[in-house]
Design a protein that fits this description.
- The protein has 14 helices and 17 strands.
- Helix 8 packs antiparallel against helix 9.
- The protein starts with 6 loop residues before the first strand and ends in a 6-residue tail after the last helix.
- The longest helix is centred in the middle third of the chain and has 18 residues.
- The protein folds into three domains: 171 residues, Reverse transcriptase/Diguanylate cyclase domain (Alpha-Beta Plaits, 2-Layer Sandwich); 69 residues, no CATH class; 126 residues, Ribonuclease H-like superfamily/Ribonuclease H (Nucleotidyltransferase, domain 5), CATH 3.30.420.10.
- InterPro entries: DNA/RNA_pol_sf, Rev_trsase/Diguanyl_cyclase, RT_dom, RT_RNaseH_2, Viral_Replic_Matur_Polypro.
- It holds the Pfam family RVT_1.
- It comes from Cajanus cajan (Pigeon pea).
- This is Polyprotein.
Length: 393
């Protein structure tokens, strides 16, 4: 049976295919995708995983065998999936790879199947993570999960099943006993980049990897700034500053510290600002012990670099709150900083009308419930080290 929707297909034989001893068939569905309506369905954000896994201690992971092929295609629509190779034309009876709607359709289907378990399950297309607070509840969860599997005929890769683990790798992160950190292969990817004369595409890829793990790396803005300059319309020539930035990023990314998964302890935001950079550290205090839950830093805009020190400190607080908004909005938290003038901005008592900039800041900060605690600079070393450029003391 022939079809007017036929798309070209070809074989791929890259290194992974040669190792398997099998060629991989790829269909170019660009012509068909042009006519398909978008079917958007949200995928879980990796940034929300620590929130979902709060207090979880036992994990199980499953990989769906054959991926999209577990979903069938309506017989009346199969002609649209047609593809051709020399001397032959075929149509798919299952959902093929390459359709722009395939990931969302598959995510939607698996989410519907596991709907009763979603409080203790994360689905990312063909990867499923089950999590529980203890072994007893995890056994019940696994039993319910297997019932759904048998009911709907879901197939898993037996080689990739991991059951009742206290430590698990999922979506590039390692989760273990209330902490998480990037998997080692992410740092290994950075090592594959050259240290000099990176192309624009290489810089974008390099910064993209760093962006995925930036929460784990203090003072990251200070290191990425020289590379970001190279992406401007009129970049400077590559120099020792850029080479040193690549070298230092590779070094500090090799062993990023684990972060604590946020619990119900006291929430603290420590901030600091220098002439060009701002820094923030999100901390949870539990029974007098402080645990780091995230790092943030950035470079001030050109206009902001000319602001008064107090305004820069206020921007550091604002940027830190924006970064950790999900964890701070609706909660009371404490802002710790070594600048004593910031609270005066929030409580303006001068007889003269306040500046518009102050009014805007007061209005913005009024959305959040927090108190400000002044701490000596020596107790604010980490954000301070975050924000100071290398040529500053």
């Amino acid at each position: 049976m022939t079809s007017n929707w036929v798309c070209p297909a070809f074989y791929v034989e890259k290194r992974s295919e040669r190792l398997r001893g099998k060629k991989r068939l790829v269909v170019d569905y660009k012509p068909l995708n042009h006519f398909l309506k978008d079917d958007k369905f949200p995928l879980p954000k990796t940034s929300t995983l620590p929130i979902l896994l709060k207090e979880s201690k036992i994990f199980s992971k499953f990989d769906l065998k054959f991926g999209f092929w577990q979903l069938g295609v309506d017989p009346s629509e199969r002609h649209k999936t047609a593809f051709c190779i020399p001397n032959a034309q075929y149509q798919w009876t299952v959902l093929p790879f390459g359709l722009k709607v395939a990931p969302s359709l598959f995510q939607k289907a698996i989410t519907k199947i596991l709907e009763p378990l979603l409080d203790n399950a994360i689905i990312y297309i063909d990867d499923i993570l089950l999590f529980s607070k203890d072994m007893e509840s995890h056994k019940k969860l696994l039993s319910q999960f297997l019932e759904r599997e048998n009911l709907y005929g879901i197939m898993f890769s037996e080689k990739k099943i991991q059951l009742a683990q206290q430590e698990i790798y999922f979506l590039g992160m390692k989760f273990s006993q209330g902490t998480y950190q990037p998997q080692p292969h992410i740092a290994e990817e950075l090592l594959n980049f050259p240290e000099e004369n990176l192309s624009v595409k290489q810089i974008q890829q390099f910064l993209g990897i760093i962006n995925y793990i930036r929460d784990f790396i203090p003072k990251i803005a200070r290191y990425t700034s020289p590379l970001s300059k190279m992406l401007k319309k009129y970049p400077p020539p590559w120099g020792s500053e850029q080479t040193k930035a690549v070298q230092e990023i590779k070094k500090i990314a090799q062993n990023p510290p684990a972060l604590k998964i946020l619990g119900d302890g006291k929430r603290i935001l420590q901030t600091d600002a220098s002439d060009h950079y701002w820094g923030a550290v999100f901390i949870e205090e539990v029974q007098g012990r402080k645990f780091y839950c995230g790092h943030a830093s950035g470079q001030f805009k050109e206009a902001e670099k000319h602001y008064h020190t107090t305004y820069k400190e206020a921007l550091a607080v604002k940027n830190g709150i924006k970064k950790f908004d999900f964890h701070l909005r609706g909660y009371h938290f404490e802002v710790q900083m070594d600048n004593s003038s910031f609270p005066k901005i929030l409580d303006f008592k001068s007889k003269l009308p306040p500046e518009p900039q102050i009014l805007r800041l007061k209005d913005w900060f009024s959305r959040y419930d927090f108190t400000v605690k002044h701490i000596k600079g020596k107790h604010n070393l980490i954000p301070d080290f975050l924000s100071r450029p290398q040529n500053q003391s």
